[in-house]
Amino acid sequence: MNRRILTLMVALVPIVAFGVLLAVVTVPFVSLGPGPTFDTLGEVDGKQVVQIEGTQTYPTSGHLNMTTVSQRDDLTLGEALTLWLSGQEQLVPRDLVYPPGKSRDEVDKANNEDFKNSEDAAEYAALGYLGKYPKAVTIATVNDPGPSAGKLKPGDAIDNVNGTPVANVEQFTSLLKTTKPGDVVTIDYRRKNEPAGVAQVTLGKNKDRDYGFMGVAVLDAPWAPFEVNFNLANIGGPSAGLMFSLALVDKLTPGELVGNTFVAGTGTISLDGKVGPIGGITHKMAAARAAGATVFLVPAKNCVEATSDIPDGLKLVKVETLSSAVDALHAMTSGAPTPSC
Length: 341
What we know:
The protein is α+β, with helices and mostly antiparallel strands.
């Protein structure tokens, strides 16, 4: 064999081997980057993202976009290097996203539950802000199978137990503690977009208590007779809460909250309207600006990180509560100063 050819073949061996490594070997990292954004005042697949049925709503304009972080797993060495070199993606150890001992399905399920909880919290925070809807003992979840399955629904407000009024969860729990498994209790309830009703529930057993088990989780929350649905699927985590709440406030009140401005943002929301910090703020800001946003609502505790990498043309507005976010948007549309990071 010609010595030149032999030398070339020997030289190619590590190059080929490295190419195989790039294409085949996976790395223990996850890529995070800007994800899709969704206008909470708009539609997805022909449905309103925030849909209200059973009460008057008002016209809106502009945008109130919730933002997300894209996530890529099972990266090959070559993919990881390409994403890292792009400068738009962040590589983080996989254990930070998928903790050891938990499967991807378990983590995804937990994220979906967080998202559902954020929808509920957004509704209650908005109703509380509006101030027209008194609190009630509200059913958050119904165990299925369970004693109340098919009789009560999430969103029902419980008014009486065996004829005794209950104004809060403490009173409701105190009455249940006087029962035993097998007892039949009469529940007077209100249901959204339907007449009030009465349910007879035969209490079951639960290993964590010696009194009757009704199979519902309840909370003290503002209750309205109309129904709110959030029509976004496969969006995990709790960070859409603030933007969902703002969309509800905008739709349930006269006037336009953002005018013609393209506003985006992020932040968790608590039942009492407090805005909490989230992860991936700089990725979300980049996604918002790419979508056309000129204003971004930043949870106060994310301000330091947010100011480290502000996209050109994006104004940051600091928010701590739902009320302060609404006030800031009113100030923005009137030309007044807004809180800034």
